[in-house]
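Q: Predict the bound structure with histidyl-adenosine monophosphate.
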Amino acid sequence: MQYKAPRGTQDILPGDSKRWQWLERTFRDVCSVYGYQEIRTPAFEITELFHRGLGEQTEVVTKQMYTFEDHGGRSLTLKPEGTAPAIRAYLEHSLGGQGRVTRLYYITPIFRYERPQAGRYRQAHQTGVELIGSAAPEADAEVIDLTIRWYRALGIEQLSLKVNSLGMAECRERYRAALLEFARPILSDMKEDERARYERNPLRLLDTKDPDLQQRLLDSPTLEPFLEEDSREHFDRLRALLDALGIRYEVDARLVRGLDYYTRTVFEVQSDALGAQNSLCGGGRYDNLVEEMGGPPTPATGVAMGMERALLAASAAGSLPPPEATADVFVVILTPGEAGERLLSELRSGGIRALSDPDRRSAKSQFRQADKSGAPFAVTLGEDEITRKIVRAKRLKTGEETEVPLAELPAWLFERLGKK
Ligand code: HAM
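A: Predicted complex:
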């Protein structure tokens, strides 16, 4: 029996893991210039947290969660997103405080039972930030600015930022009623899934993927005329801030997002490079979630970015970093004894990436391995070299060979490798 990774999951192999490290490093660097600090939360949480946090009726909760009972009879769920866990930890460890703004970032796997396709997985990975404790549109603008900066740092320039305002609960309630009224006559023509959306969360009808329904909803009312005065001002100010930051965006009155916790600002960055799963990231303001989870009223805003999708977009943009050699030098050891071990240890202590053949096969085989390793240099150590306290250093690309005194080898390599 040969085992395979479960459907919708991927192994990240050694060649690819460099790219993931690049994504993570770039994200950490961007977060640090905005003063965000890392939080790591468990892979699973009490199921109730997500029911409460994301909304009982959301598709993520009704259809996509990996929920199981542990041996103690508790219902646990692999996290389908990072916001509810971050807020749970924020409250549990009292990270906030009156008038204080808390900035958190995370890099996390997420688990959703979805139909796998390019850009959509059952275990996916997100980078994300949460800015907790500010109701200002400046906070939303900061999160959007950070998001765009990360994509730019990855060389992803072909972006389309969509923004919308969902207002607060009260205006949404009135809008919901208007939308239900509009959609009622076409209810009998809807597919089962869409009908369920109508009943559970009619706003989600607006982001239906069904082209017929899209067409029939073209004239549906938009939320904008229902917005409260405060929400309208908030949205106007956010747009002015994005203009000031030189960030291009489009107002998309149909952008609603799939999780229930959003209030006012919602946004997504889309990329044509991604095909059907065109959403690079999604985020927005969630002013009621902290209170909903038992904390004091605390406004917050944030975003999460799909890492697999960021890699797909960087690949389409041709901006992935080139593969790098994993070693600086291959030490060809032709003699038994400890001299080879000592040399390897000395090189590594000096920060030089040194490889060798643990089986000490023939010179020919070791040179073949040296070539394959991609290391720019091979150094040979045999009886003769040990007696004379030298090594023969070869630049593998050109074949040029030099004798280097053993004691000088680290410095000699450092200079030629351009290391500091
Ligand atoms: P979300 O829109 O559900 O929002 O996910 C954000 C991003 O995660 C998506 O735009 C996509 O790039 C990626 N993603 C989600 N599911 C999958 C999947 N199955 N396969 C591949 N990529 C996926 C959230 O998760 C919110 N917590 C965002 C947020 C943070 N809002 C406020 N703060």
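A: Residues 81-83, 112, 114, 119-121, 124, 126, 128, 130, 258-259, 279-284, 286, 302-304, 306, 308-309 surround histidyl-adenosine monophosphate (CB under 6 Å).
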